[in-house]
Amino acid sequence: MKGIAGAGTRRDFLPVLPSIAEAGLPVYVSTSYTGLLAPARMPPDIVVKPAEARAEVLRGPEITAQLRAPGAPSAAAGPESLP
Hints:
The protein is mainly α and about 80 residues long. It has helices at about 45-60, 60-70. The mean pLDDT is about 80.
């Protein structure tokens, strides 16, 4: 298998793999997200607790540094931001 391009910017750990923009698609955008799932109709006051704890961890300097090292942004949002 041979990589033809990588999403985002060129990575230090794959110096020969061009970014998608460098490969000829300058307007390509790729995003991803993660979230916590809970049963339907869970009371909002219960939903907020783990969401706030997760956001606090993601905003911490150690986790932010670990996420940014390979080029991933760290953005902590609440349950209202998920589709």
